[in-house]
Amino acid sequence: MSLEIIIHSLVGLLPVCCFLVALMLLDSYKLVDVRWILGTIVFGGMVAGASYLIHSAALDAFDISFTSYSRYFSPFIEEALKGLIIVVLLYRNRIGFLVDAAIFGFAVGAGFAVIENIYLLQILPLTDVRVWIIRGFGTAIMHGAATAILAVSYRALIRRKDRSPVVAFLPGFLVAGITHSIFNHFFFSPVINTIGVLVCLPLLMVVVYQRSEQAVANWLDVGFDADSELLELINSGRFSTSRVGLYLMTLKEKFRGEIVADLLCYLQLHVELSIRAKGLMMMRESGFENEVGEETKAKLVEMKYLDKSIGKTGKLAIKPFLQMSRKDLWQFYMLSK
């Protein structure tokens, strides 16, 4: 392999990877597991392969020029495919806050860009190095930024319970697709496009990180206080006279006594694990690494058992007190990893 090809490879592939690492390092709460980042990059690469097959079939099937297709069709197809990975991650409760949405979104785009540039390196190995500077610092980072925008928008809009997943997905998808399409139009020179990406993207990420860090801090403060108060109430013996206790007593008419007892145990475990997860996040933010202990793992196992015992109906009965948002579901994933 010649030195020229090595230089082209580094210039084409390293910038987007370095930017992703920078995003992960800026995450002061260490919300995202590196293993999931690597897996997401792999899936992003698989999406790039699927996109190539779809583009080839579409160009063969329809009477349309490559230029028109790359401007008006391929951006939306690619962003839709990349967006599906974000939908799956959110559905599996791997995304809790805007910052991890941004990291996962950029990781999907990074995987896509890496495979795309590797393919181009195979067919255009001796192209001018300026082309690979534009590919590495412009096109590749654009792929990551567009999907990060989609992921952040989707995560922000899906919070509302009355909003369907499709409606929540569309705004970010349209912004990502239009951004991608504008980049492919080359209204300005490739160099200007690349500079625009490098200037606008850091500003966008700074805004996302600032808002997300504040949201995490607020959630920790409010959630920790509320969980502590509820746990103190349960342990004090005054639980039966509280609104939660009185509500659970009314469930005796609908559930057997042992199920009511399981509901109370489930609620207590939920609160204890919630406090534990928030404590871990606070320690991480302060720079301390703290492993999940055997006691916590045992509680997670017990909670899974109770989850099956009380069933979906039981969980619905105590849902008003659990307030199981996506952040709450995410924190249990953080404890179990």
Layout of secondary structure:
Layout: H1 3-26, H2 34-61, H3 66-72, H4 74-91, H5 98-123, H6 129-157, H7 165-185, H8 190-235, H9 243-250, H10 257-285, H11 294-322, H12 326-336
Characterise the protein shown here:
Helices cover 82% and strands 0% of the residues. The protein has 337 residues and is mainly alpha-helical. It folds into two domains: 3-214, no CATH class; 237-336.
Brief digest:
This protein is mainly alpha-helical and 337 residues long. Helices cover 82% and strands 0% of the residues.
The tally of beta strands, per DSSP, is 0
Helix amount: over 70%
The total of helices stands at: 12
Strand composition percent = under 5%
The overall average pLDDT, rounded, is 78
What about the largest sheet? Answer: none
Give me the Rg, rounded: 24 Å
Gross morphology is: elongated
Which residue ranges are poorly predicted, with pLDDT under 50 across at least 5 consecutive positions?
A: none
The N- to C-terminal Cα distance equals 41 Å
Structural domains: how many: 2
Order of secondary-structure elements: HHHHHHHHHHHH
Structural class comes to mainly alpha
Oligomer: single chain
Key descriptive features of the protein:
single chain; 337 residues; mainly alpha; 2 domains; 82% helix
